[in-house]
Amino acid sequence: MDLADGFVRGMRRLASGVCVVTTATADGKRCGLTATAVSSLSLCPPSLVVGVNRRSRLGEVIKDVPAFAVNILGTRHRGVAEVFAGNVAGIRGTARFDHGEWRPSAEGVPVLDDAPASFICKVDDIIERNTHLLLIGVVTGVQVSDDEECNLLIYFAQNFSAIST
């Protein structure tokens, strides 16, 4: 097995939470993508790091926007995850936002109303590495669901699955 194949096979064994990362351009056009490369970075200040393919629409516009949102998905959002991952034929661009209940944050970025949690982030830094960008966002707002029993969507072995509290 060569290194690239081994890397892909090994990473398929890492279960990850599923999020939809969203933003809006200056002219109000919304864009977003399904992401599994999301992590907390620090508590002081509260910060997140997100890996985004630089060739995605979000990767193309992120340098020109002040903010983005990270929306953690529950199992009821599997369809939203599929749409924003580009896995549903014929649904592209802003039509993705026809799936799920979205509202603009005070900063103008789309937030999924019934997400288990959503984080509004100010773009703090963008690190370019090979095919991807690492977005560092300082959290400026948080929305957390009152639902104590979260059934979270995860991605493992190329499939969406569930984990429950």
Structure commentary:
Helices cover 13% and strands 47% of the residues. The protein has three helices and twelve strands, in the order αβββββαβαββββββ. The longest helix is centred in the N-terminal third of the chain and has 9 residues. It starts with a helix and ends with a strand. 29% of the residues are buried. The mean pLDDT is 95.
The main β sheet shows up as: 7 strands, antiparallel
Please state roughly what percent of the residues sit in beta strands, choosing from under 5%, 5-15%, 15-25%, 25-35%, 35-45% or over 45%: over 45%
Strand order of the largest sheet: 3-2-6-9-10-5-4
Proportion of residues in helical segments: 10-25%
Structural class: mainly beta
The helix count comes to: 3
Mean pLDDT: 95
What is the H-and-E element order? HEEEEEHEHEEEEEE
Shape: globular
What's the Cα radius of gyration?
15 Å
| Uncertain stretches of 5 or more adjacent residues | none
User: In whole angstroms, how far apart are the ends?
Assistant: 38 Å
Number of strands: 12
